[in-house]
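User: I'm putting together a teaching handout on how multi-component assemblies are represented. Below are the sequence lines for each component of a complex, exactly as they appear in our records. Could you produce the 3D structure of the whole assembly as structure tokens, so the students can see both representations side by side? Please keep the chain order the same as the input.
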Amino acid sequence: MKKFDIFKKGLFVENPIFVLLLGLCSALAITTTLTNAIGMGMAVICVLIMSNVIISLLRNIIPNEIRIPVFIVIIATLVKCVQMLMNAYTPALYESLGVFIPLIVVNCIILGRAESFASKNGVFDSLLDALGMGLGYTFAVVVISFFRELIGTGGLSLYNPFDASQVIFDIKIFADYSISLFTQPAGAFITLGCILAFVQFLNIRKENKAKKAEVK
Amino acid sequence: MELVSLFIGLTFVNNVVLSKFYAVCPLLGVSKKPKNALNMGYAVTFVIFVASIVTYALYYFVLEPLKIQYLDLITFILVIASLVQFVEMFLKKTSPEIYKAMGVYLPLITTNCAVLGVALDNISAGYNFIEAAVAGLAVPIGFTIVIYVFATIRERLDIADVPASFKGTPIALITAGIMACALAGIAGLV
Amino acid sequence: MNIWAFVWMAILVAVFIGTYLWNKNTPKPEGCEDMSECSGCNNIACSHHSAHHEEEINNEH
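Assistant: Of course. Below is the structure of the complete assembly, with chains in the same order as your input.
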């Protein structure tokens, strides 16, 4: 498989949230604001890259029988390190993401990529796969939080994660007409449902085109 | 009395699935038939209750005295995973009927955010032992109620006239959103 | 360097790997082979996932 395909498939075709439906717990919970979404995406990318690379480096040493336990130990250690680093360098983000940073450990994406890709492929391929999946995850949560924050609060805002007082942008578009349901749990489900319906609509259209081409 | 309000709060108002988003993956993946949903609920209730007590005890009797609180995440996940493996093995050896009904869902509970989430929340909310045990019981009972109701609704959704783009997961998510609205309405109860 | 941290990690990892292997080597009772409930689930860490059964079939050959 060409190198670029490995990277590209994590973005759209096998997007972890929209297609594989993995890791939905965090996708629904932290997408209240754009800053949270980007911060969580960065954390997941870090953990995913490091875990894929380490597991790929160790793939010939780990006995085949106990690979899942070893993966869990490696991923838990990495997540704890990332959590402590975030507590130190990005305290505002750490506060708002709360318990969902440690819950990256049980995020099915990380263990899934480790088991299905990193344990069987070389280091550079695993790195590309991790980067693709991580960026796909970040893209997905950014899309969800874009809609939730825009409709829920009537504006978009982005703060520097390292220094919470520094505002990168803070646009208020229609604060009077915002539907605050979307910042609540119910709105998260509805937003994700509608986005998945759109993805399914695109898939159905693609299948219909393929069927018409076959008939001809 | 505080324990009762804690119980009701965790079961309904701050429901683990619809409000705290912990167990969403099983909600979408497992809840097609109500009977299976109920079986999953039993398995989850048992695991979360025992895990909640064991992780609480380990945190306050091992990690704090030895000053290794930073190992809490690794401790919890390994203890939960070991517990699930042990329960599955125990069921395989002693009761094949229960294993056939519930054992399928046990490995899924290891990567279920709910167990780890409850364990971590017990510590960060500073509960005492009784409160942690009540939380360990209330959270999975709330999960079971939601997943059972959801399964019965999904049975009807499958034969309903849903637009093609919405069939399957999208309409299930929107249903979950409406259920979450309903629970948000009783937020003032506790 | 806190020695107890290493001791505790070693205990945890040993207990986990012990229970994991114990569970893996306990055969499933008859009639439990095909758990078709999980066909739509993408959670590959679950031991019932079909990817693990394909491996066993490949290993037998």
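A couple of points students might notice: Chain A has one domain: 3-215. Chain A touches chain C through 14 residues (CB under 8 Å).
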